[in-house]
Write a structure and sequence with these properties.
Blueprint (H helix, E strand, L loop, with lengths): L13 H6 L42 E3 L6 H8 L5 E4 L2 E3 L16 E4 L3 E4 L16 E3 L2 E3 L8 E3 L8 E3 L2 E3 L4 E4 L5 E3 L2 E3 L6 E3 L6 E7 L2 E3 L6 H4 L9 E3 L2 E7 L2 E3 L6 E4 L3 E6 L2 E3 L6 E4 L2 E6 L2 E3 L3 H9 L9 E4 L14 E4 L2 E3 L5 E5 L36 H4 L7 E4 L2 E3 L2 H4 L7 E6 L14 H8 L4 E3 L2 E3 L3 E5 L4 E2 L1 H5 L10 E3 L5
Length: 506
């Protein structure tokens, strides 16, 4: 698997560095408040109230006995495709070998009776693998498997067309679930896994037509990979890589140790709607080096307290937002249900900062600052073309870099009470900015070119929003911090039609 290393802000121009304002954050309790037991918005309370599977074997189903170790894998092997397997109540085991796993055949269907558990006993790496398509898993608990980092326990090989419903995937290493094309992940509990709840990644090709709906995705990245491998960018509730068309709706994504949702590198055509994203250590949502998305009607609360405070306490002046759009934008030339990134009708309440639009001037195809190793934009088929002198002229000057452009942010409600978040500064930012381009020496994007473009020329627009609290606005580079009047004025002209007040009722 290609490893994505999380980028950091690269050095700014000397003048910009000299102008950076001194910042700090007052002390806050070591632990943030416990996540609310239930959100006020109606969401998937799957983990607390998992539905029961069938108490009797369906007609024609093969019964699997928990008293016989390896019975599930053996019966799967000995039966034809399109077989239904009913797992009796109890703890089912595989053979005591790290690579022992169930290899379904096309169309196989696995149903768990009430209390049916497939347990890896911290011995087996994978629960279900192989390339068979159209496999269904329902009403089963899968736990105790030890997949390596960046690998997954259920659908280990990212086969296509799988349906996973009403299943609990918990307390495993690696990712609880991998995702293939046309996969449907509905009404599951994905909690306490070592790395991700879901890793939507396919080793060969792209994932398309993914549905993630009505799941509870909580407390993942228990192995704290960002601490073990600083900068790995390999943590969170769900990670997407090279996905074409994803509907992520009605999920409760909370308490993950890292970002809640992270779309990273050459994703396209996402709809992220009607989710509750709260109490995640990092950003609620990162949309990075990707294209064309609708982000709407989400409730986003108390995210980014851990990561935001850590960076602020360390003197980092970068406005790391709770919705973080990094080198991503609308691109009409790439087919999707929208030709922009539209962020609207969301409620963001007491997060560490708001929305950040960022573009790394030094990150482009073939640059050593391209943290998505070996990847290029979806606009360039032959990456080798992105070199000088050709990259300095059209069309490659534009097409060889991921651009934060055509982002439309409107009709959102942004609420901030610093006493709730526990900070004095750096948690109150909206931002659109880039760094000063410095390298490599053949880069055509050096200097302030990218910062000028993202701020004034790439059709990034806030309008018709409601702000409650002491918001500030960062433009062009971290040294330019504006109040609401300056943000609305020349030359930025942002947030036309928006309202701003210090507190509710004001």
């Amino acid at each position: 698997m290609r490893i994505k290393w999380r980028h950091r802000v690269l050095p700014a121009a000397p003048l910009a560095l000299a102008l950076l304002a001194a910042t700090g954050c007052e002390s806050a309790p070591d632990a943030r408040p416990e996540p609310t037991a239930t959100p006020s918005t109606s969401v998937a309370r799957v983990c607390a109230e998992p539905p029961d599977g069938p108490t009797k074997a369906p007609a024609g189903a093969v019964t699997v006995d928990p008293a016989v170790a390896g019975d599930l894998a053996a019966k799967t092997k000995s039966n034809p495709p399109n077989t239904t397997f009913w797992l009796r109540p109890g703890k089912h085991r595989l053979a005591p070998d790290r690579y022992a796993q169930v290899i379904p055949k096309k169309g196989d269907n696995y149903l768990g009776a009430p209390g049916a558990v497939l347990d890896g006993r911290k011995t087996n790496q994978y629960a279900f693998g192989g390339s068979a398509s159209n496999v269904t898993i329902r009403y089963l608990t899968v736990q105790g498997f030890v997949a390596p980092r960046d690998e997954g326990v259920v659908n280990h090989d990212s086969a296509d067309g799988w349906v996973i419903e009403h299943t609990t995937i918990q307390n495993n290493s690696g990712a609880g679930l991998m995702a293939g094309a046309r996969q449907q992940v509905r009404a599951n509990c994905l909690r306490g896994n070592g790395q991700y709840g879901i890793n939507a990644y396919k080793a060969s090709g792209r994932v398309s037509g993914l549905v993630i709906e009505g799941n509870e995705i909580a407390d993942n990245n228990r192995d704290d990979w960002e601490r073990r491998r600083p900068g790995c960018g390999c943590t969170g509730g769900v990670k997407f890589w090279a996905v074409d068309g994803a509907d992520v709706r009605g999920n409760w994504v909370h308490g993950n140790h890292g970002p809640g949702l992270w779309a990273d590198t050459d994703n396209n055509d996402f709809r992220i709607e009607d989710n509750v994203l709260e109490d995640n250590d990092g950003a609620a949502l990162i949309y990075e080096a990707s294209y064309n998305a609708v982000i709407r009607k989400n409730t986003i609360r108390r995210n980014n307290w851990v990561e935001g405070r850590k960076h602020a306490d360390g003197g980092d002046t970068f406005p790391f937002g709770t919705i973080y759009v990094s080198e991503s934008g609308g691109e009409p030339r790439i087919r999707a249900r929208t030709d922009k990134i539209e962020i609207y009708r969301n409620v963001l309440e007491n997060n560490w900062s708001g929305i950040t639009l960022w573009e790394n001037a030094d990150r482009f195809c073939n640059s050593p600052a391209n943290t998505s190793s070996g990847a290029c934009t979806l606009l360039v088929k032959n990456t080798d073309r992105c070199v000088r002198p050709a990259i300095a002229t059209a069309p490659l000057y534009a097409d060889c870099r991921w651009k934060t452009q055509r982002v439309d942010i409107h009709d959102n409600r942004f609420v901030l009470d610093k006493s709730v978040v526990g900070c004095t500064v750096m948690c109150d930012r909206m931002a659109v900015l880039a760094n000063y381009g410095t390298y490599p020496d053949w880069s055509p994007y050096q200097g302030e070119r990218v910062a000028d473009a993202i701020t004034l020329k790439q059709h990034n627009r806030w309008h018709d929003n409601v702000y409650i609290g002491p918001w500030k606005f960062v433009v062009h580079d971290p040294s330019r911090i504006l109040d609401f009047r300056q943000w609305q004025g020349t030359p930025y002209r942002q947030d036309a039609g928006s309202t701003f007040r210090a507190q509710d009722g004001g």
